[in-house]
Amino acid sequence: MSNPSNTKPGHGANTVLLGMLIVICSCALIIAVRLHDRLSSLTEQVKKLADSREAGPAPAPTAPSASTKDAAKDGDKTAPAATAGPQLVTRHRSPLPQPGEEIVKPLPATQFVTGTPEPPKATAPPPPAGSIVYWTKAHEHVGREITVEGKIVATKNIGNYCFLNFTDEPRGGDRFHLIVYKEAFDDFGGNPEDTLLNKMLHVTGTIEMDPKGERPQIRIKSKEQVKVVE
Predict the structure, then answer these.
(1) How many other β-carbons are positioned within 10 Å of the β-carbon of residue 138?
(2) pLDDT digit string (tens) for 175-215?
(3) What angle do CA 216, 221, 224 make, to 5 degrees?
(4) Residue 169, domain member (yes or no)
(5) Is residue 212 part of a domain?
(6) CA–CA distance from 84 to each of 60, 77, 80, 89 (Å)?
(7) How many domains, in total, are found in the chain?
(8) Helix (H) or strand (E) run with residue 72 in it
(9) What pTM was computed for the model?
(10) CATH code: domain of residue 184
């Protein structure tokens, strides 16, 4: 007949080991669950950060203007509400250096033009038919075909054109000159700068401004436009 006391110690040790194993498994399971939750939270934060960087910085709120504040204070329901989001502001670049700025080369000049400029117009009444206008009054008849009288006192041939001037003054609102085209050079001996110098002329043509808009002129393309009177 066996002694029951011989089996109790072994049975108790197994029970203790089983209990410790259950406790260890439970702790490991709890730690695994918590690590999973922590990793999920970190993954979500990283995803939100990446999305925010791709979308760019959030627009700063726009402060309401003084008129909007006054209207809201007075209870004016028709006052416009402040517009959310960034506002576009047009700024003109100053040609002066800004604080801390070094300009290596000059800034290009900027010209602001509104509308289409009107072409120069005549400022004097039309001359009577068949009359002759002295060259100092030619600028008063821009856009008209008239006959101008004057003495050529200076000339300059630049190859394709020959300039005939009624004055040697470098400036003046009444300046006036003729332009003889190269195809008409032979009509004046091949060198109009010599054959027409110091001659009194009657020249017929349309008064127009030069390309720079600085002085009036007549273009000469044939000898029929020019009559030497002295």
Answers:
(1) 25
(2) 789 999 999 999 999 999 999 999 999 999 999 988 888 88
(3) 100
(4) yes
(5) yes
(6) 9, 18, 12, 15
(7) 1
(8) helix 66-73
(9) 0.48
(10) 2.40.50.140
